[in-house]
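Quick one, probably user error.
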């Protein structure tokens, strides 16, 4: 029984690709494989055996690491589909539980399926009470992402009964546990940093409302969840739920390819997400906007971003895959305006600064030529800030949202009959073999 929708992985195309070794004139026929849409791939699996050469592709700019039926991106057209559904339609019409079901199981749920799934997730939201003591080992001023990596990694020590990856039931329970417990752990990292008591999840609340409750309620006072904020958070969760073979997802797959348990794999994904070139960018965008401070300073920062000798980059701009407007950034920009309007903060100086920065960058020859557009992180930080969420928690909330994507991709990998341990090779540029010199004979 498979946990996820099984995927027709790929079909060999009639065409082949011919490689010629100029020095000998030898030719090699490489099969071409077609997906359902998007670029074909050249199958190089037998390349080394037949030619004695590896491929060289640092950063994997031309490498398809797996076949996947979950998420499709057309970076030139600015299209993002989850299981075939456009992100804009899902953000507008769906809710996060439904999107989780879709990503995990491959199709939108029926009413009964959705209700069952919602219950399965809701009844896994509490964490083992012992985890509360685990938290106490961290400094109060730890970065919440540091705590997140540690606590999520530790889940495998608490939930042994769902770590047998060869058992589909274990895989399903672990998947549900991860999706359910991430908001609880995220809120606990926040409460711990404030020195406030942890709040237990509430089964009468929806996923995003429950997350806000666990972050903002206290045992002395209930917290009435603002529907505008809950809706904005739901949208942010949907927009971040999956994104094909990005750095953190590839990390989860690589960690999982050795047979590691899913809790350990997701902890590895969290570590990768933390970096400022990936999920840490939303935090970096706010820090950057605060550093720029005023519209008058924008030209100076644009100049710095274009200077090759200056490491400064315009955070929230550019993407490995999108060479067009990131479709998630468009929804995020709209949500940002809605949230600030409804909270009576439409004159928020940071939003004005962000919009002016975007306007100037999009007209600048450097950014136009390199096809650098705002990415999803450009506006999410401003929304989080308006919601009263501290900057250090931004990437944590991204991790909560992305957990379903990591879990869906991990399940797909485990069930892929072609799956092998991920073990890339290299272009060696070090010393060739040499003799050991005893220390007293070294010059
Ligand atoms: N500001 C200024 N110049 C940039 C920027 C930027 N934000 N992004 C890319 N460039 C330039 C590079 O200097 C490079 O110029 P060159 O060709 O003259 O050397 C060119 O554009 C291509 O950039 P690369 O770094 O080679 O592209 P890559 O695909 O490796 O990187 C990345 C993509 C990491 C997202 C990059 O655009 C970046 O650092 N952006 C800022 C960080 C950010 O916003 N990250 C969030 C990504 S979205 C996400 O993870 C959810």
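Nope, works fine. Designed sequence:
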């Amino acid at each position: 029984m498979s946990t996820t929708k099984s995927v027709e992985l790929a079909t060999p195309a009639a065409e082949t690709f011919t490689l010629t070794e100029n020095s000998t004139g030898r030719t090699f026929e490489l099969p071409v494989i077609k997906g359902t849409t998007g670029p074909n791939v050249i199958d190089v699996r037998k390349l080394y055996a037949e030619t004695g050469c590896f491929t060289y592709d640092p950063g994997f700019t031309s490498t398809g690491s797996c076949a996947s039926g979950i998420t499709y991106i057309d970076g030139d057209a600015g299209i993002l589909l989850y299981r075939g559904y456009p992100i804009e339609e899902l953000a507008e019409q769906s809710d996060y539980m439904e999107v989780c079901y879709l990503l995990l199981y491959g199709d939108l749920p029926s009413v009964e399926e959705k209700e069952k799934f919602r219950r399965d997730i809701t009844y896994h939201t509490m964490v083992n009470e012992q985890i509360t003591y685990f938290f106490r080992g961290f400094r109060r001023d730890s970065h919440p992402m540091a705590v997140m990596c540690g606590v999520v990694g530790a889940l495998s020590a608490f939930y042994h009964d769902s770590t047998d990856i060869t058992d589909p039931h274990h895989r399903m329970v672990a998947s549900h546990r991860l999706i359910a417990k991430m908001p609880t752990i995220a809120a606990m990292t926040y409460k711990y940093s404030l020195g406030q008591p942890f709040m237990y999840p509430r089964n009468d609340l929806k996923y995003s409302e429950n997350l806000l409750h666990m972050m903002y309620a206290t045992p002395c006072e209930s917290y009435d969840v603002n529907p505008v904020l809950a809706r904005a958070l739901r949208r942010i969760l949907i927009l971040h739920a999956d994104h094909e073979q990005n750095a953190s997802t590839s990390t989860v797959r690589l960690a999982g390819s050795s047979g590691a348990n899913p809790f350990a794999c997701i902890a590895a994904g969290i570590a990768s997400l933390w970096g400022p070139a990936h999920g840490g960018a939303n935090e970096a965008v706010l820090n950057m906007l605060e550093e720029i401070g005023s519209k008058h300073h924008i030209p100076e920062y644009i100049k710095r971003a274009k200077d090759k000798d200056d490491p400064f980059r315009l955070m929230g701009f550019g993407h490995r895959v999108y060479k067009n407007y990131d479709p998630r950034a468009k929804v995020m920009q709209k949500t940002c305006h809605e949230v600030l309007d409804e909270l009576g903060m439409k004159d928020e100086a940071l939003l004005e600064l962000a919009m002016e920065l975007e306007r100037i960058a999009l007209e600048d020859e450097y950014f136009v030529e390199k096809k650098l557009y705002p990415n999803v992180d450009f506006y999410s930080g401003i929304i989080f800030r308006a919601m009263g969420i501290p900057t250090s928690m931004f990437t944590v909330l991204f991790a909560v949202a992305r957990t379903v994507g990591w879990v869906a991709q991990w399940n797909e990998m485990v069930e892929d009959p072609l799956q092998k341990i991920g073990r890339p090779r290299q272009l060696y540029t070090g010393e060739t073999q040499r003799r050991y010199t005893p220390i007293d004979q070294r010059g």
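The chain has a mean pLDDT of 93.
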